[in-house]
Amino acid sequence: MTYKVGVTDYVEEPHAIEREALGNDWEIVWLNAHEETDFDADRLADLDALLVWHAPITERVAKMLKKCRIVVRYGVGFDEIDVAALEAQGIAFCNTPDYGTEEVADTTVAMILMHLRRIAEYDYQCRNYTEGWQEHTLAPLERSRDRTLGVVGVGRIGSAVMRRMRPFGVCLVGYDPNVPSGHEKALDYQRATSLHSLLSQADIVTVHCPADASTTGMIDESFIAAMKPGSILVNTARGALINSLDVIEDGLRSGRLLAAALDVLPSEPPTDHPLIDAWRRAEPWLRGRFTITPHTAYYSERAWREMRYKAAETARLFFDAGIERNRIRGEDNRDRIL
Q: Of residues 295, 305, 327, 336, which has the active-site annotation?
């Protein structure tokens, strides 16, 4: 029997990685659909499975999937997927959470160390030295092992960040209401009883939580105000966690934030904003204190392949063995572990 799987968007033909994972019993259909209105009802009606990148799977789209039994997301988040609508049609939904963990953790640690040691600032400052050299030290600059790292969200990636940072001797504090009691003993970190408690202790704060009703916009004025003066903020998780770039700018201008590093932004690509403009112009007050990478913390050639292979493999396992790998059900309103 031959099954037919659609690929919505972004991952273009020839789909060699997906073909390798699926085997010879599958036909792959490139839909090239980026918006709800791009989908063709007849093409969707003929699919047995659907692989999704960024295209929204709304109730209207779900009702077009007449034969489809499983939808798989390339990646972790499913903000654009109406899981309840899929379930109403008898369609399972699964995501692909277990790729790129090493890459995101490595990027996070690189950002932390760069700003902890103020490397980017030194790079900018020393370009203009006309007298002297080694005596131009930046302050404050404390020993790494005397600093406290606060990890908000101690799932796969947050835990991987902790393991990488432990050899540097930093004190590790974590906050995550969704991990069980004793998790901190297994990973050997101090468990904060509240977000505010973590923020008040940490010299560096890195966030690794999904964007849901409780976390969207969490990095706001009160979040920054609760941080220690001269703290470092890192976000490689979700842009929606940031209430507004205004709060990041205010924190950097006031000195509450020594530095901020973001792989994700509230709007991507970034729209016009005074902070973005200052970053692009490398204004003196901001030089080396604000780092942006273009939502690529997840990426390496191996992670890219792993994500695509596992997404397609999830569809195949569903049909071959009845395995619902990483299934998300309608009552799950978010991805609980990053």
A: 295
